Amino acid sequence: MHIKRWKAENGYRQAMVLGLPLVISMVSSSVMTFTDRIFLGGYSLDALAASLPASIAAFLFLSFFFGVVEYVGVFVSQYTGATRHERVGAALWQGLWFCVPSGLFLASLWFVAGPLFALAGHPPEVQELEVAYFRILTLGGGPFLVGVCLSCFFSGRGMTKPVMIVNTAATVLNIPLDYCLINGIGPFPELGIVGAGIATLVGFTLPAVCFGIMAFTRRNEERFKIRSAWRLDRDLFGRFMRFGLPGGVQFFIDMFAVTFFVFMVGRIGPTELAATNVAVSIYTLAFMPMIGMHVATSIMVGQAMGRGEPDQAAYATKSALHLALAYMLSMGALFVLFPAPFIELFQARGDTAADFAPVMAMGTILLRYVAGFTLLDAIAITYMGGLKGAGDTRFIMFTMAAASVCCMVIPLSVLKQFGAVGIHSAWICLVVYVAALATSFMIRFRKGPWRTVRLIGK
Asked: Can you give the residue range of the structural domain that contains 128?
């Protein structure tokens, strides 16, 4: 059965060919963020403590626009599956028009950074670093969104290798620049967390430039109308908003739940916050590659639905799920069996083993929680990719909203009111949240109402 699935259309091999470059691309992004925090952890514990709340808060605002823009890839995949290649350029341009006001809004968040982080109640020295890092990251929101949108022109058509190459190149540039700007190596000044932000801004901008050069060619104009379809298409833009906006809201709600979790942990104590930062940073090594498989699933499902083959869409999703479960099981085992090598990467310069011991002890425990929901995350992410590829985005949005409120916001708020928020209760809420999403998406996909959704019309 598994050998047959390997060779079949939308089987393991096709999922690997399509998904592996996206996985590597996501690994590159994960490594960029991971090394960011390692370098900051080596610079100072205050910088490490500030990096996660600031980056999560920045991505919280970015997430809505990112969730909308990435849906360009589903439109491109469905037009490709339907062999309506002349509509691909128009679909891409609707996303680019959406990027313009989105980038301006994100840049304007510079002016609310101070009051925002004052609400968090973190120590003043950490707040100052959070504000500086957040401001730079939000300035990079516009270039980041343009890069994501342009990458959909390639990934939506199943050409995932260019996405991998460009994102890997951005990481190769970012890592040494990050180290130099944080620590003041060579001709670069020592900027600490500001340097980390500037390096990330460069890493956001490079893909936008590269994808733009690669996409807007004469050859692509002939087949996809990549240049001439630049005008706003009211009907297509309306459908893009109808299906894309729920994706944006869903992503925002998910990030809000995680941000709320991190800020609540920050109120427990500095050791708990630092250990949570370390555990979440380590988990990105497992989580971000799964985003690559999530995108691959939505592409395969989108192309199958564009051809009018929902059974093939279901087959593709199951193939991707098997691969995701195998990967996440391996990562979960590593987190349980060998936690110390991961956590030690975040030990600051000059810190003795005794200084770092509380973070090491708590981080080891938190990685067990992480390992516990790796398989749940694999199920949630893969089925969500299948539902998004078919256009069932409203269900995802409402499910995310219900789960975040019922599993995260209300329980943590009630526990805080009674002074009972602890590191274990907070992490248990996070595990329950992921379990609720995995169960809901699996049931929805298997029931199959997504099979009748019409995304691109006639």
From this structure: 2-452
- CA distance linking residue 337 with residue 317, whole number of Å: 30
Q: For residue 156, which of 64, 234, 84, 79 has the smallest C-alpha distance?
A: 79
The residue assigned the tokens 């833009």 is: 237
Would the pTM of this model clear 0.70, i.e. be above it? yes
Is position 33 within any domain?
yes
pLDDT in tens, 290-327: 888 888 899 899 899 988 899 999 999 999 999 999 99
Q: pLDDT category, 349, cuts 50, 70, 90?
A: low
End-to-end CA distance of the chain: 36
Q: What is the pLDDT of residue 47?
A: 82
Residue 457 maps to a domain = no
Is 87 part of any domain?
A: yes
Q: pLDDT band at 67, cuts 50/70/90? A: confident
Under DSSP, the state recorded for 22 is H
Q: pLDDT tens for residues 11-44?
A: 888 888 888 888 888 777 767 777 777 788 778 7
What digits encode the pLDDT tens for the residues 183-237? 889 888 888 888 988 998 998 899 999 999 999 999 999 999 999 989 999 999 9
Q: What is the 3-state secondary structure (H, E, C) of the chain?
A: CHHHHHHCCCCHHHHHHHHHHHHHHHHHHHHHHHHHHHHHHHHCHHHHHHHHHHHHHHHHHHHHHHHHHCCHHHHHHHHHHCCCHHHHHHHHHHHHHHHHHHHHHHHHHHHHHHHHHHCCCCCHHHHHHHHHHHHHHHHCHHHHHHHHHHHHHHHCCCCCHHHHHHHHHHHHHHHHHHHHHHHCCCCCCCCCHHHHHHHHHHHHHHHHHHHHHHHCCHHHHHHHCCCCCCCCCHHHHHHHHHHHHHHHHHHHHHHHHHHHHHHHHHHHCHHHHHHHHHHHHHHHHHHHHHHHHHHHHHHHHHHHHHCCCHHHHHHHHHHHHHHHHHHHHHHHHHHHHCHHHHHHCCCCCCCCHHHHHHHHHHHHHHHHHHHHCHHHHHHHHHHHHHHHHHCCHHHHHHHHHHHHHHHHHHHHHHHHHCCCCCHHHHHHHHHHHHHHHHHHHHHHHHHCHHHHCCCCCC
Q: How many domains does the chain have?
A: 1
Residue 458 lies in a domain: no
